[in-house]
Write a structure and sequence with these properties.
The protein has helices at residues 4-21, 25-28, 44-48, and strands at residues 57-61, 81-87, 90-96, 114-119, 127-128, 138-146, 149-156, 159-168, 174-180, 187-194. The chain is mainly beta and 199 residues long. A hairpin with a 2-residue loop joins strand 2 and strand 3. The longest helix has 18 residues, at 4-21. The protein starts with a helix and ends in a 5-residue tail after the last strand.
Length: 199
């Protein structure tokens, strides 16, 4: 008889597949991809050198296209910005409540103003502080599903508690975060590509 844990894993895996193939597509104006969409042979080079992935660059929050139930206007200002840069064979993600930031210590002190963390696309849940240096013992694992799709799994003190799908539109101008499970609200956050800000 299948244990409840195994049953949960099977249901979760099915939900991930459906989320990748269907859920973010309507937000991005895409049609569902054909079967054969998956395959590590398609992403092996990008896992090693993610510098040419379409997620790399700067993004600005779009309240009008995001899920209103997430109440993002309470969490971001209208200049809320994310910056992804390729670094040491992985990706550095910086999240800013507003741009330009007024505090320079976000890399060492956790605040809601800004945060930064680094990961590789190897599925290992070992990369520290996905919410910034918040003292909660958080790590993150990231997978490259295809060139336009990343999947994130966060753990707090070794217990997985959040999943997020990152999907870039075919024209590389829209990024959608779809969060599900975990203690946070599930739904879509939509980001528009902007020119890389002066650093």
């Amino acid at each position: 008889m299948m244990s409840s844990a195994c049953r949960y894993c099977a249901i979760f895996a099915a939900a991930v597949v459906l989320a990748v193939l269907i859920q973010p597509l309507s937000v991005l104006g895409q049609e569902a991809p054909p079967i054969g969409f998956f395959g590590s042979y398609r992403t092996a080079a990008d896992k090693m050198d993610p510098s040419k992935l379409p997620i790399i660059g700067a993004w600005r929050i779009n309240f009008n296209r995001s899920d209103p139930s997430l109440k993002l206007q309470g969490r971001f200002k209208d200049t809320g910005t994310i910056i992804y840069t390729a670094e040491n064979g992985g990706i550095k993600q910086e999240v800013f409540l507003y741009w330009p930031p007024t505090k320079a210590d976000y890399k060492n002190v956790f605040t809601d103003d800004a945060r930064e963390f680094f990961f590789k696309l190897d599925g290992k849940n070992i990369y520290p502080n996905p919410q910034g240096p918040n003292g909660l013992g958080q790590t993150v694992a990231m997978w490259l599903v295809d060139r336009n799709t990343l999947f994130r799994e966060r753990a707090t003190k070794g217990v997985v508690d959040e999943w997020v799908l990152y999907r870039v539109s075919p024209d590389a101008n829209t990024l959608v975060w779809t969060s599900f499970g975990g203690p946070g609200d599930s739904g879509h956050q939509v980001w528009d590509r902007i020119p890389m800000p002066q650093r």
